[in-house]
Design goal:
By secondary structure, the protein is of the alpha+beta class. It has five helices and 17 strands.
């Protein structure tokens, strides 16, 4: 399941973050890649010990966990602190699959990567190329979203960032361990939750059908969740 989520960040928040990133020290992205990924990864990243990271990470995590659609799709248990990368001209990240386990550099906690997330920090008109291309059960999808929007997709997917041919592409990226390990179950819960929200909006929160469906939703979460 691939879900695009609008307006995680406001335009003002995007501007503030990019201003900080413009003045920060960047590192070779291959420094955080495994042996296989390093062969195809050509980009820049903010180092994990950069002093600019904590405040930016805190802001993004606050906005994510306050966004109903993102929470509905991810059902997050743990979120790896967001990192930041950029692709200048001719930089790219070839086809790869994300590592199954990541380690939170702040706590040492291991996290199973169920979902990958890219939060775009500049608009598509500011650069050419740089599409996030994701291969999943529904075929190949190309994603290039406005600043402040994000895409959430299974970490099991093969994906790549196509070469940037003009301008610079800047984004935040991170991983989520969901309370619901199984992707099919997670998709069922997402569809059910969105249907409940639509029904509640049209018929009211206390509509008997909406109440029954809400009970079914929570009973399924209770049955499937790992916490």
């Amino acid at each position: 399941m691939l879900v695009c989520v609008e307006d995680i960040l406001s335009p003002e928040e995007v501007s503030s973050i990019t201003h900080v990133l413009d003045t920060a020290v960047w590192d070779d992205g291959r420094n955080t890649a495994g042996p296989q990924s390093a062969q195809t990864k050509r980009n820049q990243q903010i180092p994990l010990d950069s002093p600019v990271l904590p405040e930016l990470q805190s802001l993004i995590l606050q906005r994510l966990t306050a966004h109903p659609l993102w929470v509905s799709a991810a059902l997050p248990l743990h979120v790896l602190p967001p990192m930041f990368n950029r692709y200048a001209q001719a930089e790219t990240f070839g086809v790869h699959v994300d590592n199954a386990i990541r380690v939170n550099p702040q706590t040492g906690q291991r996290l199973r990567t169920d979902l990958s997330c890219t939060l775009f920090l500049n608009d598509p008109a500011e650069y050419d190329g740089g599409e996030l291309v994701i291969e999943d059960n529904y075929g190949t999808q190309s994603v290039k979203l406005p600043a402040g929007h994000c895409v959430l997709y299974p970490s099991t997917s093969l994906h790549q960032v196509t070469p940037v041919t003009k301008g610079t592409r800047t984004a935040s990226f991170f991983w989520v361990q969901s309370m619901i390990r199984d992707a099919a179950q997670r998709e069922i819960l997402f569809d059910l939750d969105q249907s409940i929200q639509d029904l509640s909006s049209s018929a009211g929160l206390n509509d008997p059908t909406a109440v029954r469906l809400t009970g079914i939703y929570h009973n399924l979460v209770r049955q499937w969740a790992e916490t």
